[in-house]
Amino acid sequence: THSNIYRLDTDHTMEEGGGEYGRPRRGDPDTISYLRGLPLDEVTAAKEVRTYISAYRSEDGGAAEENEPAEFPESLSATHAALSSIYHEIASLACEEDSCQQIETLIRISCRFSMAAKRIVLSSLSGYWVFLSTHRFGSHVAQTALRCAVAECEENLDAFGDGKSEGGEVVEDSYGSLMQNEDGSGGSIPHSLSRILLDAIEELKQYASDLSVHVCGTHVLRSSVCILSGVEFVEAFPKPGSNNQGDGQWDSGVLAATRRGKLKDKKKKKKKGRPQPVEESGAKSPQEVTVMRKMKVVSDFKSEVFRNKSDAMLEELVGIITLSKNDTHGEVQPPGEVQQHTCHASAGPLLVQLVRILSYLDLHSKPAQKKSGAKKIVPDRRLGIQEEEPRYSVGSQAETLVNRLLCWDPNVCRDGDDEDERAKQPYASDIIYGLSGEPRGSILLEAILRCSPDSFHDELCRVGAFYDDTTLREYIEHGVSNFVVQVLFATSRSREQTAKLVKPLVGIVEDGSLLRPNSRCADEGAQEESRAPTKNTRRIGVIWRASEMCANVGSAQDQEQLLHAIMRGFSAATGRSEEGDTELSDGKKKRKRSKAKGLPACECIPLLLGLKPGSYDASCRLTLDAAGARVMHHIFQFKERLREEWVESFFDIYTCEDLVGIANDGLGSRCILDGLLEGPSRAKSSRLLLAKISDRLAFLAAERVGHHVVIKMFRSLPTFEDKAAVSATLSQSLNRLGSNSMGRSVMTSLAVKEYLEGENPWKEALARQRGKEDWLEDITGEKQSNEGEDDEQDGSEMAKGRHKKDKKKKKKRRQD
């Protein structure tokens, strides 16, 4: 069974602010009172600076006799004065609860508009970095100081304007006695910012092995690793403007996330309510999805000299964190302390970050190579599609780290079956098995699956026994390792690998254990014994990722096997099957479906979506199963003979109100209707949808989400007659459409007003819009296939072409 087999045996002995590190003296109460009395506000300071800059850059530079000269911002002058007066006490004040927040505000304001302040802040903490890193409040100040010191200034007022700037004079008055000049004369603070930064990280490096398992120290180490690598982590699906990389990055970009250590009110006991799903409540998921971006740094950190020093220091830091100093080269070490760290609450996320960063650096250290025939992955929050992670290459530092974490022998060549392969890797098999069942270790294994090259990805599946049906079932049924299986499916690299994964998965899905509801069966036709509570093994997420894998890199045979397995699985899960002959609309009788074929699509769809036909109430918010809706999206991308029944059944079973509710729901419209209107069956789907919701077009066209569906449906209609019918219907509701921006957008996209002028003006307006869309598609390189084009026909034609070539080759061989 899965268990934390690499859990640390003893708790870490480092206490908060351990005594063996340089500890600053307690903060002076008078200084703390002075800081708390300062009217510091970063937003106000930023406004003052921008007003000063705009006034200075106005006509005549703001220096003409008839104009008053621009005054230097008072907030910034007060910040520099306060920072210089407490320079020798900053480390002490950073560890006090009442002053740490004010220290962070001082650092952010000063470093945002002054290069000299960056040197002051870093040097003031010299000698105390390790203690601050292990302190509850000091660790937040240390992270803020490191990140703000390397970030580009929004505007460097030290050298602003022509000649000797006013900002330079303020800095000289505040810090002149502290800083060294370029020739080495003057104060004690070095002139080189990069040298001060490397000295600070060197101070942390000596205790990196202890800091990596400290709850506070690991965060400071992560910031140091990001700075040395020049890479930062940002949200994969940010809110508009939150990851803005322009001039406002200090307000709403990545740097805005460095506001840490804020005082919190005392927690009050609250009644625990029933947790809502992430898709429904809008809350953040426990593990936020992040992507890597190049960090914007000041010019001092862009030089080749600094990059060489930082690369060498990063390599040393990785060696210390992974305890690889005493390793014997060429020999695989048995599991030890490093494997314990992979499951540690603090060290585990740090190792995940190292794997991802080293993969990023390895990819960007080589010339870009365009993958031929590779399908571009477009990230989508609603569909749960993440941006593709950078993959490391063979022989890179990232590969060395992964081999050490998994106790993997890279010299083993596979020349036997899977059992022989696991015997040749005596430790890796158990480590993969153990990591997959541990909450933190599983995240590391997921990162390795995303970042590994194709060859290693396949070997990891063999050694981890993911191709074995018994072991795969155990992985899927486990509460943690099933997420590793989902990532494995989402990162499948080839059709051959997909076929190997689908083969054992089919039998697991068919028995219905993954599709059985977690609660008591609520279906009226279910038998009494099926109403008993069952084990919580519902794994719709696994089905979702499997359908995504088959739609992207699977063959028609893989898609068919999975689809039939889902239908048989629902039959087994519900204990129902279609019996007897059913009479169709044309009077013919449909032959009964055998139990081996499972439930028909019309019964599987409500079970996947969690929405019974005719049950939608306009007064309540629509509730859909997020994973089930994504399964439907990918099924709609299958081959035509496989998806046809599902497409027709979807429109047959749901009423007009149901479809309107789905069109007005963010999840439903993106996963279900967009899968139909933007997929290979869009011509047929648009007609079926129009026939169902023609009476509610005016309502949907004025809705925030629904108007997108109306526009996409219009563009997917195959003939001008169908499009004219939509424009004619909407032309009768011009007042309603003109009442909000959504309706006006529909009027423009569908040329509703031009339709009233006549057929020719209407067609000319649509032609102009189509020309603009073609122009954008040419720029972005994202061009859809022709409407009604059957992807299966293309595949059959290619197969025929290959068959002809094979015949020609055989003839030549016979002639020879």
Account of the protein in words:
The protein is mostly helical. It contains 41 helices and 4 strands. The strands form 2 sheets. Strands 1-2 form a two-stranded antiparallel ribbon. Strands 3-4 form a two-stranded antiparallel sheet. Helix 10 runs parallel beside helix 15 (304-321) and helix 24 runs parallel beside helix 26 (540-553). It starts with 28 loop residues before the first helix and ends with a helix.
Mean pLDDT equals 82
Helix content: 40-55%
Low-confidence stretches: 1-19, 61-65, 243-247, 261-266, 269-286, 520-534, 580-586, 785-799
What structural class results from the helix and strand content? mainly alpha
Side-by-side strand order of the widest sheet = 1-2
Largest sheet: 2 strands, antiparallel
Shape: globular
Through-space gap between termini: 61 Å
Helix/strand layout:
Elements: H1 29-36, H2 42-56, H3 74-85, H4 90-93, H5 100-113, H6 115-124, H7 129-133, H8 138-150, H9 166-175, H10 193-205, H11 208-211, H12 217-229, E1 231-235, H13 249-252, H14 278-281, E2 290-294, H15 304-321, H16 337-342, H17 347-364, H18 397-406, H19 418-424, H20 428-436, H21 439-451, H22 454-463, H23 469-477, H24 481-490, H25 495-510, H26 540-553, H27 556-574, E3 582-583, E4 589-590, H28 601-609, H29 626-635, H30 640-653, H31 656-663, H32 666-677, H33 682-693, H34 697-701, H35 706-716, H36 720-730, H37 734-737, H38 741-749, H39 752-757, H40 759-780, H41 791-815
Helix pairs in contact: 2-5, 3-5, 3-9, 5-6, 5-8, 6-8, 6-10, 8-12, 10-15, 12-17, 17-18, 17-21, 20-21, 21-24, 23-24, 23-25, 24-26, 25-26, 25-27, 26-27, 26-29, 28-29, 29-32, 32-35, 35-38
